[in-house]
Amino acid sequence: MQLDSPVLRRWSIWLLAAVLLAAPVYLVRATSLQQSSSEGQAIFAQKCQACHTIGGGRLVGPDLQGVTQRRDLSWLKEFISAPDQMLASGDPIATQLLAEYNNVPMPNLALSPAEVEALIAYLENPAAGGAGNVPPSAAPAGPGDAARGQALFSGQIRLQNGGASCIACHSVAGLPTLGGGSLGPDLTQVVQRYGGEAGTASVLVSLPFPTMQGFFATRPFTPQEQADLLAYFIWAGAQPAPQQTTSPAAWFWAVGIGGALVLFAGMALFWPRQRRSISEQLRSMG
Ligand code: HEC
Ligand code: HEC
After folding, report:
1. What is the Å distance from ligand 2's center to 169 Cα?
2. Which residues line ligand 1 (CB under 6 A)?
3. Residue partners of 40: CB distance under 8 A and separation at least 6
4. Domains, the chain, ranges and CATH?
5. Stated pTM of the model
6. Nearest ligand, CA 162
7. Predicted confidence band of residue 25 (pLDDT cuts 50, 70, 90)
8. 123 phi and psi angles, rounded to 5 deg
9. What mean pLDDT is reported for the chain?
10. Which of 116, 187, 209, 257 minimizes the number of CB atoms within 10 Å of its CB?
């Protein structure tokens, strides 16, 4: 067969056209997967890493290695987008996970659908993220001082970058100052619930909670403050449960009911005497 045979020439043109057409499609697909995976890696480092590892074991939440095989894709999308709503709807897997993870709910991080896609692409193939594995979250500076942590918590020492003191929104049992806010959860057992010191430390470093982000994103704790707060939470969680303290509402009822009883008792004492005096008066009149 000659090289310039018309049949061969026609076929090679077709072949060339096919390659030229297919290559960009293939390349675009490959790079877009690569791109969304590395986007996913960046989002993961920023918003998920405080609570999850990929292949590093349980932290605050489950190890996410292989989660794309373990769960349905649509379940995964829905859970990452709105874990709170899934839990509220009574989803059995979400309910079971919550119990398994000390009732620490995964927060709704208000992710866009594109961010969720990118995260799933990354979870599907963490190695394709590009820049190697996500480095572990920064750890707080050295050992902390629990007493200083308590003073930071209760506002006796101000946070260096000007964030509100924790007591505005949180309580811890056994604080010398009574009360504490109730916008955020009680933090007495936070170390126990967050799976130990490692989980609590990484949560204190990046504060992955939507409400707290609003207040602290521009006023991060210093590493020393993180260490002191962690030391305080470790100390607080190890204290024996304090006596049930009486809440202000209980006091209100106790005082109210007690007062009414005293009043009735007084009337009961006073009433017969008055009746007697009336009958005495009648007798004396008669
Ligand atoms: C404050 C800690 C926290 C943050 C931040 C967090 N998670 Fe979670 N996540 C949890 C906990 C705890 C669970 C276990 C379920 C529960 O208790 O609600 C969980 C469960 C999951 C699950 C289900 C795992 C399984 O085995 O089925 C997925 C998937 C998940 N998280 C993905 C993410 C992604 C993606 C991000 C970041 C966008 C993220 N999480 C951020 C705490 C967190
Ligand atoms: C303006 C209110 C506010 C302040 C101030 C605040 N927090 Fe929070 N925090 C919250 C809320 C609300 C949550 C619950 C998660 C969410 O909805 O974002 C939370 C959650 C947490 C959690 C996770 C607890 C859990 O049980 O899930 C920790 C730990 C925490 N805060 C630590 C701190 C520390 C330490 C300080 C002080 C340095 C602080 N917070 C100050 C509002 C606040």
Report:
1. 7
2. 47-48, 50-52, 60-62, 64, 67, 71, 76, 79-80, 83, 97-98, 101, 104-107, 109, 111, 119, 208
3. 118, 119, 120, 121, 122, 123, 129
4. 7-129 (1.10.760.10), 146-238 (1.10.760.10)
5. 0.72
6. 2
7. low
8. -65, -30
9. 81
10. 257
